[in-house]
Amino acid sequence: MPWKRRYLYLLMLAWAIAWSPKATASEPQATTAPEAPEAAQGNPVDYLKFESRFDSKCQLWQADVRLVKNTHPSKKIHYRMVRYLADKIQPSLIAGTIDPGGEPERLGCTQIDGLPQRWEVVQAQYAD
């Protein structure tokens, strides 16, 4: 089974390289003009708020449900998140779009078999 471990490692490495924010020499540097409207609106990550609530489905694990909510007054936010279980990154990428002022989206339970589970935002941008 070592090939599975190597496969997952290579998959996570390729994912990290693909989402890395570094610009290469062949890519033109971004100008400030396209970023100005987004900069005026603020960073979309700042408008994503996590909250925990009681949920009967998570009661088995003695945990709460973790939710993410868009607090921006008028813009939809497209996000990508990674999940950590016991501080180990899991090979899954969560992506979605949240409407402004809408219902929070359910991510999952804060604990599984006594192991803590958390989510981190990798990328967020305003949806058009």
Plain-language structure description:
- The model is unreliable at 22-36 (pLDDT under 50).
- The chain has 128 residues and is an alpha+beta fold.
- A hairpin with a 2-residue loop joins strand 3 and strand 4 (88-98).
- It has a domain at 43-128: Sandwich (Immunoglobulin-like).
- It contains two helices and seven strands; from the N terminus they run H-H-E-E-E-E-E-E-E.
- The strands form two sheets. Strands 4-3-7-6 form a four-stranded antiparallel beta sheet, with helices on one face. A three-stranded antiparallel beta sheet has the order 1-2-5, with no helix packed on it.
Question: How are the SSEs placed, and which strands pair?
Answer:
Blueprint: H1 2-18, H2 32-41, E1 48-53, E2 65-70, E3 77-85, E4 88-98, E5 105-109, E6 111-112, E7 115-126
Antiparallel strand pairs: 1-2, 2-5, 3-4, 3-7, 6-7
Compute the CA-based radius of gyration.
18 Å
How widely separated are the two ends? 44 Å
User: How many individual β-strands?
Assistant: 7
Give the proportion of residues in helices. Answer: 10-25%
Mean pLDDT: 79
Strand content: 35-45%
CATH topology heading of the domain at 43-128: Immunoglobulin-like
Q: What is the ordering of alpha helices and beta strands?
A: HHEEEEEEE
Shape designation: flat
Strand order of the largest sheet: 4-3-7-6
Counting H and I runs of at least 4 residues, what is the number of helices?
Answer: 2
What is the structural class?
alpha+beta
Question: Can you name the CATH architecture of the domain at 43-128?
Answer: Sandwich
> What top-tier CATH class of the domain at 43-128 fits best?
Mainly Beta
Largest sheet: 4 strands, antiparallel
- Unreliable spans are 22-36
